Amino acid sequence: MNFKLLFLGSLFYLLSTSEGQAQTWQSNLVKLNKAEKLTYIHDAKGDVIPDFSRVGYHQGDKVIPQVKVVKELSPNGISDQQQIQEAINELAKMPLNKDGFRGTVLIKKGTYKIPGTINITASGIVLRGEGLATKLIATGTGQRKLISVNGFGKPKEVANTRTKITDAYVAVGTISFQVDDVANFKVGDDIIVFRPGTTKWIEDLKMDQIEAREGTIQWKPADYDLYFERKITAIKGSKITIDNPLVMAMETQYGGGEIYKFSFEGRISEVGIENMLLESAYQSATDENHGWDAVWMNRVENAWVSNVTSKYFGFSCVNLANYSKQITVTNCTSSAPKSKIEGGRRYSFNNDGQLNLVRDCTASEGRHDYVTGAKVAGPNVFYNCKSESAKADIGPHHRWAVGTLYDNITTDGDINVQDRGNWGTGHGWAGVTQILWNCIAAKVTVQNPYVSGNNYAIGITATKSSGRLKDRPDGIWEGLNHKDKLMPASLYTKQLADRKK
After folding, report:
1. Taken in order 348, 84, 69, 75, is the CA torsion positive or negative?
2. 3-state secondary structure 172-204
3. Are the beta carbons of 18 and 263 closer than 8 angstroms?
4. What does the alpha-carbon distance between residue 127 and residue 271 come to, in Å, rounded to a whole number?
5. C-alpha distance from residue 237 to each of 54, 240, 261, 274, 339 (Å)
6. 3-class DSSP assignment, residue 81
7. Rg from Cα positions in the chain
8. Closest residue by Cα to residue 278 from 120, 106, 70, 113
9. Rounded CA gap, 316 and 294, in Å?
10. What is the C-alpha to C-alpha distance for residues 306 and 326, in angstroms, rounded to an integer?
11. Is the Cβ–Cβ distance between 423 and 413 less than 8 Å?
């Protein structure tokens, strides 16, 4: 036996193995166990990084379907909007099939002039183009939506079902809790988990002390009630288990929490916008009297926008409003917006809803490319998205967005989670349970609010910034500019894979 060769071979194996181990690292908050599944580490309060896997179309449990074409259209250059709208209205009168669909309107290749807005107000309708060869142009003037998907009404509380959460503290990431009375609830019920805004909470956040300037509005308790939509999956004694975790703690010192059943009869579902180019006509690079949103969705759940490219709109490619839920936006591109470069413009992919997923998208020349607004109730996910020629920052934009994962976001601009102070009319603390995972940016700010939770920067490649207001508590940072590879590379996709094993 050649012992020299054996020794050299063993040495090479040990070196290569240790080198391989040194090429990866793991967070102290989320680790891979021996079975290669994620283990979550509780902090002193019991909070953990939440499970973000149940977002998007049917919470990730169904793939986006290929819905049967029932109507085909070609451009005529005279009444393009009218013929598209008439086809949608015709479908809306048809019955839903067993899968909840009425059918697809196929918009054949060509250019379609749309002087107003195309409206979808019924479930089960898909608009499909033939890729970039299908071009819809928002012609003429006026800030408007090119495609609007919108149901009716708002959530209604079911009378006499409200009951208090009795735990003194329900931690972030929790999916079960004790309630005062379970008599009115059953498995499968849709519920609101309600967290009240209170005077003490706002005082402790110091959001009644925002440095005033013209137009600054101090936070008021009644304006900061939060409503999280959930479904009951189990009831055992007085313990309720829900389908998605809490992304903000329920704290007795700040009013605790309550649950109640709700209905939303006007919300529509199973709507898709796919495979087309949407453009806005414009007069100059700073023109603001033209198309504003390419696709806008509200009062809709279990829907999607896929393979849509927008050009020249003043505000967004896709704008998900506050009653949008379980929407997947995938493989979309926002490019060359036309507007002034200042507030209230160029929010390329805006999400104000909950349980929504924006993935594999690209934006250029936007201000806030992947962004949430005020009091956004998560979980929500932006995954594997890129931003080029950014004119401002990515992240929660103002007034306490809750539970957002920014996973593998790459930008040549900044990503910020911070106290925005008196920007706007007093944005203040932008959010909590905001998690940046394996992102690349020019600069990153992550601050923790004074109370009620943490924000996280894990595996970030960027220059760390102290933010606009530099005396605020620092967020939780791990692996800033780490040379080795973070494992798992994507928190969202690993959480989804674990759940489906």
Report:
1. negative
2. CCCCEEEECCCCCCCCCCEEEEEECCCHHHHHH
3. no
4. 8
5. 26, 8, 18, 46, 57
6. helix
7. 24
8. 113
9. 6
10. 14
11. no
Q: How far apart are the C-alpha atoms of 201 and 185, rounded to whole Å?
A: 30
At 76, the amino acid letter reads N
Residue ranges of the chain whose pLDDT lies below 70: 1-22
**Residue tagged 């939440």 (tokens):** 50
**Helix boundaries (H) for 99-233:** 199-205
- Which residues have CB under 8 Å from 44's CB, separation 6+? none
CA distances to 32, 95, 319, 441, 485 from 24, in Å: 12, 54, 37, 21, 4
Q: Answer yes or no: pTM beyond 0.90.
A: yes
DSSP lists the bridge partners of residue 350 as 319, 371
Which is it for strands 456-458 and 377-388: parallel, antiparallel or unpaired?
unpaired
Question: What is the Cα 144 distance to its own chain's centre?
Answer: 23
Strand, coil or helix: what is 60?
helix
474-487: pLDDT as tens digits: 999 999 999 999 99
How far apart are the C-alpha atoms of 455 and 473, rounded to whole Å? Answer: 10
The string of pLDDT tens digits covering residues 410-464 is 999 999 999 999 999 999 999 999 999 999 999 999 999 999 999 999 999 999 9
Q: How far is 411 from 415, CA to CA, in rounded Å?
A: 8
C-alpha dihedral over 120, 126, 129, 132, to 10 degrees? 80
